[in-house]
Amino acid sequence: MYESYYGFSERPFQLSPDPRFFFATNHHQRALSYLQYGLDQGEGFIVITGPIGTGKTTIARNLLANIADENIVAAQLVTTKLTPNELLDLVAAEFKITVTGNSKADVLQSIEKFLINLNKQGKRALLLVDEAQNLPVETVEELRMLSNFQLDNKPLIQSFLLGQEELKAIISAPDMEQFRQRIIASAHLKPLNAEEVKNYINHRLAQANCNREALFSDEAFQLIFEKTLGVPRKINIFVDRLLLFGFLEELNNIDCNAINEVAKEMSVELTGSLSGNVLESDNKHQPLVINSTENVENIKNVLREVEEILESSIQQKVKMTRYIDKLLKQKNREFAELQSKTADSK
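Structure for Putative general secretion pathway protein A, as requested:
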């Protein structure tokens, strides 16, 4: 879409975690250092927590992409609410372990045999568990039990847990003391500050080979920080949309007017919330009284909101029509130039 207009080699603000676009703030670099420290130690648990969208998965991908030690065999789990048995089955599947039998004992025996064979080859297993806040307490305890697999007093498998802030509450529970004693390092990621937002955006633009100077003004960077609260995932969603808007409006640079316009559009859409606020609901449902003045006013407000959403939707369709028209004109020009070159060559 906008890549050729702005001279990018690729989209710089994709949502999919990509180690090439990894940007290390102080907090992210500290977390990555802890992970590397954990690798060097070869034992215990490393725990990385942080709010949604702050880059935990990107850190995990960056670590896996940069492991230079061929003696480490790594697997990554993105968990749902797994039971202990489901966790063991998934571990076996990710490490491509052949399991003979259907019981939990059979799975554990197969995993232990696999880990011992790795040890005999001078290798060890690394397990990264992403979205670990979804694990029930008994499943986290199963991870601790896996760490008991040892040979010659050396652990055969090491686990890194990455999760949202709820993971801290799980690990802090009174019955998790044994697990806590196995944690050798932990870090908590935070949203970016205003200066880091500017550096983050410029870093991603540079990775996409952006050759335009002053695509964003300093005021624009500050406003993007205010709209996204410094959360990397929100920044990606918002700036990607800004660049599309700039392309459709044929803007050479993104100013505060464009940012406010896009923020207004996105405030009534489902393309990534720009607000950190959570809508509050009243659990005590009151019966609807049709002739109530208050309820009539509420209905009017709802209808006004629906009208705004429909108006915004129409505006988006108009913009997409303009975008398609622009693409067709561009393709026609390219086709005419190709025909002209072909005629000249004859």
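The chain has two domains: 26-188, 193-272+306-336.
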